[in-house]
Design the sequence.
């Protein structure tokens, strides 16, 4: 899939999440779904995630350093990054 297709899919999923409940949206969970692409290949997807995170909670599970850096760059007011790399199992 190309970057445009990925972006449209993410937008559709977010709209679907918003429409699930009459009392509000449910969180969108993304489990490293964009790992086949680099941040440079699909930058608009991350821009959309950032924008939509104002109205829908986005939980992104990854160990990709680029995605972690992006999330940290959003600041504490917009993203909470939990690094489990050193945590005991």
Sequence:
């Amino acid at each position: 899939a190309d970057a445009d297709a990925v972006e449209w899919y993410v937008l559709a999923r977010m709209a679907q999440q918003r429409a699930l409940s009459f009392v509000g949206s449910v969180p969108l969970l993304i489990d490293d779904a964009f790992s086949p692409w680099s941040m440079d290949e699909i930058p608009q997807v991350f821009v959309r995630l950032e924008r939509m995170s104002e109205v829908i909670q986005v939980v992104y599970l990854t160990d990709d350093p680029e995605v972690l850096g992006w999330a940290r760059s959003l600041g504490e007011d917009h993203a909470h990054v939990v690094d489990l790399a050193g945590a005991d199992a």
